[in-house]
Specification:
The complex is a heterodimer.
Chain A lengths: L4 E8 L11 H16 L8 E5 L12 H4 L10 E4 L5 H14 L5 E9 L5 H5 L12 H17 L5 H13 L14 H6 L2 E3 L2 E2 L8 E10 H11 L4 E10 L13 H14 L4 H4 L2 E3 L7 H8 L8 H7 L16 H4 L3 H16 L13 E8 L4 E8 L5
Parallel strand pairs in A: 2-3, 2-4, 9-10
Antiparallel strand pairs in A: 1-7, 1-8, 4-7, 5-6, 8-11, 10-11
Helix pairs in contact in A: 3-14, 11-12
Chain B lengths: L13 E8 L11 H16 L8 E5 L2 H4 L4 H5 L10 E5 L3 H13 L5 E9 L5 H6 L14 H14 L5 H14 L14 H4 L4 E3 L2 E2 L8 E10 L2 H5 L4 E10 L13 H10 L8 E3 L5 H11 L6 E2 L14 H14 L5 E8 L5 E8 L3
Parallel strand pairs in B: 2-3, 2-4, 9-10, 9-11
Antiparallel strand pairs in B: 1-7, 1-8, 4-7, 5-6, 8-12, 11-12
Helix pairs in contact in B: 4-12, 7-11
Classes of the chains: A alpha/beta, B alpha/beta.
């Protein structure tokens, strides 16, 4: 990065199954307005808008950013639309941050959303395409065999996924924005829920949500001034990275993808992190299906390959006494407005290091990871944010 | 020895060093998107004497709505073969904005080479109905207005304001299709005079068939190199010395359709008016839009407009804007121009516009 930059404003909607009370424009505006209020700014203060969402077919609007330009105060400004599959919320934040880190703009508003109730993501994902392997039953059907292969390879006990499902829903009870609020959640409830894609029970899958996320990313001088005027601290960006690899080829390691390992290595090197489990206070990682927690623990280098399930099993990733809490917000398992889900991970990491995460705050969090992945676990976006300015 | 000109935006000079496009056709049935892209990407590597291992960053532009399925960019990525894994991104916009994102990335200073590509096959569906889905989903899309009718509203607004006549529109089309006779990648090339064109029936008054772009299948790719390394690749790199993009309101009722303030603002910021412009490649799918945009860009009568034939000769969606950048860069690289303007548009009737100044090193 050429210049230091920081997150100075954060906003999100209360994620729900159906937001029938607002249009898409109204929904993104809720998140954008909250982020601007947090930053002590108004639409007029913003230099550029970067928006992201998952496939346009999820709502049935082609390139909806055109229709949203007015609602987001982008008229007369540069507006970019990012789409990198499920990782898009993270990639969008990174594209926005680069506009500031390069000195091109000083104050960038970045927004991501999905209004799943306007269409049917499962249907949209299942349209047959010539010469491409059909996804058929949506993302869960695609990932279940990979999860099964992980279980076989690692020798993990069968209940580790269910433990993640319980833990993240307990975390969600501390996050008023989380979609799923299941006060009675326990292993029995998960186990008794219907088997969707073996080994994934219904409650081991993410919900379908309507929701939006927004952040204001600012240059160092602006961030310093706003910290003074609003009295709220900034989350400084210590590193950001993206990596992609092809969906399929012979010998591809789909359980522990190289692109994820490379991306983690890059972002941790930028942030000066050598031992993420020790040096980070928490992580917000894209876990749409329970078993992706142990799989990503290994992929991101929080433990050795094959040991991810042991961390989860021991409670290390729990906000309640764990040494490296993952997804204190409840994660994707508790709220999944798809296009926004990656940005929510980036945003929740920033909330933690700003000390603004409320009930799901990790005490004295000073460094956190935000992570998103997409496609056939082939697109990765990550950032590390901290309460201190990077060196 | 040449030195890279100092850019007006950003701090690091970045140049276009190679460009290739698939010969545009009405319907390419023999190749899917990957097959369409592979030879094009192969050609930009060959021109630059590079392989994919030289590329630090990959960025593409496309839309799922042409293929009618999600994630069309995911399969298209197989045309690059990002293995080992690469830094890669995608915009659901014309690939000219993928160029913009790449240019930003190269400003960071740690990466030097970017590969950009865009693709679109209009033949896969009914474009008039597909593009209606780009409009406000609550107030406009349910009416299914087609893009030709919307463009006609804009053309009529220009006539009503006395900014152009139907003869002027025919003049643009006549010149464009004649110039296209020298462009092997063009789809519509012919030598018809204005009087002949004006005998055509209206499609949507005041637009006749000649005012309307062809339906096209196509793809394009480009390589950007940052810093003096560009001189190692090509004798005359096309340096991006100014670049900016702006969006306007979506609702037609609040816009003056006969003007393009977003283009004017972007052109001002990119510094279009700070020197003579030898050639401009303007992403004006409809004939009247070239007149509108040339005025909004502030170009003088000495600038050669769309010598490639422009979008009236070949109009592959999502690659069309990048092709304007490529055609303008080619004029710099082949020595026929020393300062050029490239323009790209996105959204209904010119809602969003990107403008860049390309220059040869002095």
């Amino acid at each position: 990065m050429n210049q230091r930059c920081a997150v100075i404003g954060i906003g999100q909607t209360h994620h729900k199954a159906k937001r029938e009370d607002v249009s898409i424009a109204g929904m993104v505006r809720e998140a954008a307005r909250a982020a601007l209020d947090d930053a002590g700014m108004d639409y007029g203060d913003i230099d550029a808008v970067v928006i992201g969402k998952a496939p346009d077919m999820f709502e049935g609007i082609m390139m909806p950013e055109h229709y949203l330009a007015g609602a987001l105060g982008a008229v007369g400004k540069p507006m970019l639309r990012v789409h990198t599959a499920g990782s898009v919320g993270g990639s969008t934040a990174i594209v926005a941050a680069h506009l500031v880190a390069t000195g091109i703009h000083k104050r960038v508003l970045t927004v991501a959303f999905e209004k799943q109730s306007d269409s049917d993501a499962m249907w949209a994902l299942s349209v047959p395409q010539p010469f491409a392997a059909p996804l058929l039953a949506g993302a869960g059907g695609y990932f279940a065999p990979i999860i099964r292969a992980y279980i076989n390879r690692s020798g993990a006990p069968n209940d580790v996924g269910m433990k993640v499902a319980v833990k993240d829903r307990l975390h969600a009870l501390k996050n008023p924005y989380a979609h799923l609020q299941l006060p009675d959640i326990d292993l029995k409830m998960v186990e008794e829920s219907i088997m969707l894609w073996d080994p994934l029970h219904y409650l081991e899958s993410c919900p379908s949500s309507d929701g939006a996320a927004a952040m204001v990313i600012a240059a160092e001088d602006v961030a310093t001034a706003q910290e003074k005027s609003t009295g709220r601290s900034a989350a400084w960006i210590h590193g950001m990275a993206m990596r992609s690899e092809p969906t399929m080829f012979a010998g591809r390691n789909q359980i522990n993808p190289q692109a994820g390992r490379d991306c983690a290595k890059d972002v941790f090197a930028q942030a000066g992190v050598t031992n993420p489990r020790k040096e980070l206070d928490c992580a917000e990682v894209y876990v749409p299906f329970s078993w992706y927690e142990p799989m990503w623990l290994e992929n991101l280098g929080f433990c050795d390959e094959g040991d991810g399930w042991k961390l989860t099993d021991s409670g290390a990733t729990s906000l309640d006494g764990g040494d490296i809490p993952w997804n204190c917000s409840g994660g994707v398992l508790s709220s999944n407005p798809i296009g926004a889900s990656g940005m929510l991970r980036f945003l929740e990491a920033a909330l933690q290091v700003r000390g603004m995460a409320g009930e799901h705050q990790v005490a004295d969090a000073s460094k956190a990871l935000g992570h998103a992945y997409g496609g056939g676990s082939q697109f990765f976006a990550m950032w590390v944010v901290g309460s201190d300015r990077p060196a | 020895m040449s030195t890279a000109p100092q850019p007006k935006q950003g701090t690091r000079p970045v140049a276009i060093v190679s460009f290739a496009q698939a010969p545009t056709q009405r319907r390419i049935e023999q190749a899917n998107e990957v097959e369409l892209l592979m030879p094009v990407i192969g050609e930009v590597y060959a021109q630059a004497n590079m392989t994919k291992d030289d590329v630090d960053f990959v960025c593409s532009g496309s839309t799922d709505y042409l293929i009618g399925g999600p994630f069309s960019f995911v399969t298209a990525l197989d045309a690059v073969g990002v293995w080992p894994p690469k830094r890669e991104s995608h915009v659901e916009m014309d690939a000219a904005w993928a160029l913009y994102e790449s240019w930003v990335q190269l400003q960071e200073g740690d990466l030097d080479v970017a590969l950009i590509y865009g693709f679109g096959k209009s033949s896969l569906g009914d474009l008039q109905r597909i593009l209606a889905l780009q409009l406000d989903p609550y107030t406009m899309a349910p009416l299914w207005p087609d893009q030709v009718s919307l463009a006609a509203l804009q053309a009529q607004a220009m006539i009503d304001k006395g900014l152009a006549t139907e003869e002027d529109f025919a003049g643009v089309a006549s010149r464009s299709r004649r110039d296209a006779m020298n462009n092997p990648n063009a789809q519509v090339a012919n030598d018809l005079d204005v009087a002949t064109l004006l005998k055509e029936e209206y499609i949507a008054s005041p637009l006749r068939r000649h005012c309307v772009p062809p339906l096209s299948d196509g793809a394009a790719a480009m390589i950007l190199v940052a810093g003096d390394r560009a001189f190692d690749v090509v004798d005359r790199p096309a340096w991006i010395t100014g670049i900016d993009h702006r969006i306007e309101a979506h609702a037609f009722g609040v816009r003056d359709l006969a003007t393009s303030p977003s283009t004017t603002k972007a052109a001002h910021i990119a510094g279009v008016g700070e020197g003579d412009v030898d050639v401009a490649e303007i992403h004006a799918p409809f004939a009247h839009q070239e007149i509108l945009l040339a005025s909004a860009l502030g170009l003088s009568s000495t600038t050669a407009l769309n010598p490639s034939g422009g979008p009236l000769a070949a109009n592959p969606l999502m690659a069309g804007g990048l092709i304007r950048f490529g055609e303008a860069a080619n004029r710099i690289m082949d020595g026929t121009a020393s300062r050029a303007v490239a323009h790209a548009t996105s959204g209904p009737i010119l809602q969003q516009n990107l403008v860049a100044v390309l220059e040869a090193a002095s």
